UniProtKB/TrEMBL annotation:
Residues 1-277 form the Aspartate/glutamate/uridylate kinase domain. This is Carbamate kinase. Belongs to the carbamate kinase family. The keyword Kinase applies. Keywords: Kinase, Transferase. Pfam families: AA_kinase (PF00696).
C-alpha cells in the first residue's frame, strides 16, 4: 500500500518547546519511531509542517541589518524544507537501517488569480507591538492583522493546484525509497502563462491540503494525517464533545472545525477520499501504525453504494 503521511506542525516542536536545534533533534526520534513501522510494510511519503521554523527564520531575516529587505516567504519556506528534511532523513535512516531515505525539495503550483491573494490570512513570524507592526507594514508593504495572539504579519494561503515534483516522487517510490517532500505545503510558485517560467510568491500553502494534493497525484492508497489528538472531535471545547471515529466526507463537512487547527485536516481528508475513492485517517502521531490498521483515529471513507 502507498501511504502519504502528513506530520503535524508539532511533530518536531511540540507546544511549549523552545525552537532550539537540540530540541528538534530529540523530537525527531519519536517521529521516526512512529512511522518506521509503517515503512516496513508500505511505500511511504512523508510531508510535514513548518510553522515554528518558518516563523523563526522570518524573525531572523527581519532583524538582519545586512539585508536591504527581508528574505521572501517562499525562499524561507525552501530553507525550512532543508532544515526539517535533514532531521527527518537522519532519524528515519537510523530507524530503518539499509533503507533508502531521501528529502526532495518540492514546489507547489498555485493560481496567480487565487482569491487568497486578495485576502491574506496566514500568520508568519512573531507578535509585534502596535507601533512596530505599523512601522514594518509601512516599510515592507506587509499586511498586518490582529490574530488570537496579537498583531502579526499575514500572507495569502492559496489552494494547491499541482505538486511539480510528483513524477520524481513516484520514481523514488519505485526504487523502494522513503520520500520526505512537500514540507510546509511546498514552495509556492506561479507559472507565467506565456513562457511557463516559475516565480515564487509571498504566500504559504496549507501543508495538509498540499498533502492531499500530493497523495492524489502519486496515486496513494491512504492519506494519514497525524496530529496531537487521538481523533477528530465534534463540538470540541464544549460539554457535548464527542469523538468522530468513522465518517464520510459529507458527514465530516457537516460539522464546522476550527480553521486554525482541525479544519484543514478534515478538509484534506475529505478531498482525498472524494477525489480518489481511497481511505484517509486523522489521529495521533504515536498511534500511526494502529490508525492504518483500523484500531485508532478517525477513519474517513467513501460513501457506501446505495447509502
Amino acid at each position: 500500500m502507498r501511504i502519504v503521511v502528513a506530520l503535524g506542525g508539532n511533530a518536531l516542536l511540540r507546544r511549549g518547546d523552545r525552537p532550539d536545534a537540540y530540541v528538534q533533534r530529540a523530537n525527531v526520534v519519536r517521529v521516526a519511531t512512529a512511522v518506521a513501522a509503517l515503512a516496513h510494510e508500505h511505500d511511504l511519503v512523508i510531508t510535514h509542517g513548518n510553522t515554528p521554523q518558518l516563523g523563526l527564520l522570518a524573525t531572523e531575516s527581519v532583524a538582519d541589518r545586512s539585508l536591504v529587505e527581508p528574505y521572501p516567504v517562499d525562499l524561507l519556506g525552501a530553507q525550512t524544507q532543508g532544515l526539517i528534511g535533514t532531521l527527518l532523513v537522519r532519524g528515519l535512516r537510523d530507524a530503518l537501517p539499509g533503507r533508502r531515505v531521501v528529502c526532495l525539495l518540492t514546489h507547489t503550483q498555485v493560481r496567480g488569480d487565487d482569491p487568497a491573494f486578495e485576502r491574506p490570512t496566514e500568520p508568519v513570524g512573531p507578535v509585534y507591538p502596535d507601533k512596530v507592526a505599523d512601522f514594518l507594514a509601512a516599510k515592507h508593504g506587509w499586511t498586518v492583522a490582529r490574530t488570537r495572539s496579537g498583531r502579526r504579519r499575514v500572507v495569502p494561503a492559496p489552494q494547491p493546484e499541482r505538486i511539480l515534483e510528483c513524477d520524481t516522487v513516484r520514481v523514488l517510490l519505485e526504487t523502494g525509497s522513503v520520500v520526505v517532500c512537500a514540507g510546509g505545503g511546498g514552495v509556492p510558485v506561479v507559472s507565467d502563462w506565456a513562457t511557463g517560467a516559475l516565480r515564487g510568491v509571498e504566500a504559504v500553502v496549507d501543508k495538509d491540503l498540499a498533502a492531499a494534493r500530493l497523495a492524489e497525484d502519486v496515486k496513494a492508497d491512504f492519506l494519514l494525517v497525524l496530529t496531537d489528538v487521538p481523533n477528530v472531535y465534534a463540538a470540541h471545547g464544549t460539554p457535548d464533545r464527542r469523538p468522530v471515529l468513522d465518517v464520510t466526507p459529507a458527514e465530516l463537512r457537516a460539522t464546522v472545525y476550527d480553521p486554525a487547527t482541525m479544519g484543514p485536516k478534515t478538509e484534506a481528508a475529505a478531498r482525498f477520499v472524494e477525489n480518489t475513492g481511497q481511505l484517509a485517517a486523522i489521529g495521533a502521531l504515536d498511534a500511526a501504525y494502529e490508525i492504518v490498521h483500523g484500531r485508532s483515529g478517525t477513519l474517513v471513507r467513501p460513501e457506501l453504494p446505495g447509502a
